[in-house]
Amino acid sequence: MPRPSLFSRCGLLAFLGTFAVLVSPLASAAESVPLPNTRPLEMTGDLSAQMVAGIDRFLQRELAQSIPARAQHWQRNFTSTEAYQESVYPNRKRFRALIGAVDERPAPTELEYVATTAIPALIAETATYRVFTVRWRAFGNVHGEGLLLQPKGAPRARIVALPDADQTPEMLAGLAPGIASNSQVARRLAESGAQVIIPTLVDRRDEWSGNAQLNRFTNQPHREWIYRPAYQIGRHIIGYEVQKVAAAVDWFTQENESASRLPIGVTGNTEGGLIALYAAALDPRIDATLVSSYFDSRQAVAKEPIYRNVFALLHEFGDAEIASLIAPRALIVEASLAPEISGTPPPRPGRAGAAPGVITTPRMASVQAEFARVQALCGPSLSRRFHLIAAGSGGTPPLPGSPLALTAFWSELTADRTPLAALQAPPVTTSRIPDVNARQRRQVAELEMHTQGLVQLAHHDRNAFFWNKLKPDSAAAWTAAVQPFKTIFWDEVIGRLSGPDLPANARSRPLLDRPTWTAHEVVLDVRPDIFAWGVLLLPKDLKPGERRPVVVCQHGLDGVPADTFAEDPALRVSGIYQAFAARLAERGFIVFAPHNPYRGGEDFRRLTRSLNPLKQTLFSVILEQHEQILAWLSAQPFVDPQRIGFYGLSYGGKTAMRVPALLDGYALSICSADFNDWLKKTTTIDGPPSYLFTKEYEIAEFNHGRTFNYAEMAALIAPRPFMVERGHNDGVAPDEWVAFEYAKVRRLYAQLGIPERTTIEYFNGPHAINGVGTFEFLHTHLNWPVR
Q1: 373-387 pLDDT, tens per residue?
Q2: How many CA atoms lie within 13 A of 392 on its CB side?
Q3: Cα–chain-centroid distance for residue 526?
């Protein structure tokens, strides 16, 4: 993708001042009037930065409004417990899909002792319980691993105790330093007679976030390293770990069937608290849940680590709504200290690209407000077993697993008021503790390989979802046939903005005067605080009443509209864009060069972190902007609305795949320097071009790999003309990836009887506009003669 250009640094107006020799500015007052039917454009400064800032303001309002808006997705029935459970079942089902907890678990589940000739499974014991190293198959070839604390007498309860991601099971059991003795939850519960499984969570280090064979590494925490590719195929690090808990509960359930029925509980702090809350929301077999150092309003989830990013979360669920899925079972929320995670592992040579995010202790007022929300959602009857524990001296939150919280949890779990046993002596090791580093490596590797396996099989999912349901009998029938899939693509993958549309309120001002064309800046309102901005290039030989075709020329990452028509050979962008917008205007096309808001480094990337929880992506905004642009262009007296084409480079090529697929107002689309196997591009650990090794965390689209790869997106464009422009030396992807994916497109157009409407042009060049075959394509399919 293009790196930040000089235009990115100084903005379009500064460009015009600095490089005035390139243009002949309009001088006279008569020439400075705006376009007909537009008001004067008076905005100054960096319009790109203002666009991003405006979108952010819009999203902050949307985030605040999401809380009352969630009610529309719930139809709670309070007439009985059974009626309530049935009424929230659709919400539970959607929540399961959102966190990717959808892999099939084996049955029956067996708990395995883990031992070697040097280290037996029994590693420690006390007078009342023994500690074993164990593992259990969760799904596929993925296992939960950790410790089993087995009472020497009959157990009183069965509990999954989850540490934070950066804590080991040994810490929670009192076998290793790192957790204060009073907060060693698993040990305290075992001392009171519970059978306890302590799973290992994927941690926040970055040691294995990369590929040693490629010598490519990142500073992404292991949780982010698993999250990124999993997200693309409808999975999630959260869902994976919730399923490990569910598999442990499967084993507990089997044990209950062969012996007396014992209550099942789950506890967790910080990251373990998240997993405990989500697991209990999905699994009615869990009788009581203790969540420490996590429960809070999630309105600021965009500031948390990206591995907590759940698509559409705040569209339907905050922590209160998730907790309402637990009712009427017991939930103890402990407002306790969380570890202060100030960011990712530090960037260093050979390791970079992690998404920013922090973890802090939830504010007491925020926890109390969210807890009050769930009580209001469930009512006093269903929430009577919900408790908020906030002990501590001088207003300081306690450490996780305080005696008060554990006692409340134990009482609700065992249905008696027997207090926890007094703190006993820690377990005494009977052999060497297993290598926790090697265990962590296995946990990361298993999830990595499981995800990569799903990536390899995703084409079967897309066939079942898309191709097998469609018959490419004719071009005439295809448009109607794919319409339901366009709705799914927009609603479930890209996401739609909410809120009122605004009238365009078009403003313009003259910008450049060239020998054969003039340029005019145009700004259109879209939504409150969201506007569209671009530059219109008008050929000077337009005749009164004449309607011409338009080519919308889209810049790439960190670009601005001027990049598409800048001609100074000293500017790097000139070599990438080849002034293709200017060349097309010289050929007599009307050209519009819009600005897309993927500029500003972390500023625009942070937008996606606010968009995703609202069930939206950056292209949710871009689609609305282009919808307004198309409407405005179509209304102009010099435009033929049936002949508006799209031509985008790099990130503009991403736009060429998504926007014309959904906006039928574009008569054709040309994807330059981007088309490839998009799933492989965003998920593979084996290809150097993979986005897993770069900072572009904003490109993720949940479950796109199992629904719409680039061939499917092109199929949504069909039967309109579609073209790919591809340089052999383009580092976006190798030719083989591109050709493989395009072959499906070529086959579709042939089956539709319109093979002449699609083509791919390879040229011996880099990541750049070539402007040869694509120009011919535009002349042919927009019906404009070559001059």
Answers
A1: 999 999 999 999 999
A2: 15
A3: 24
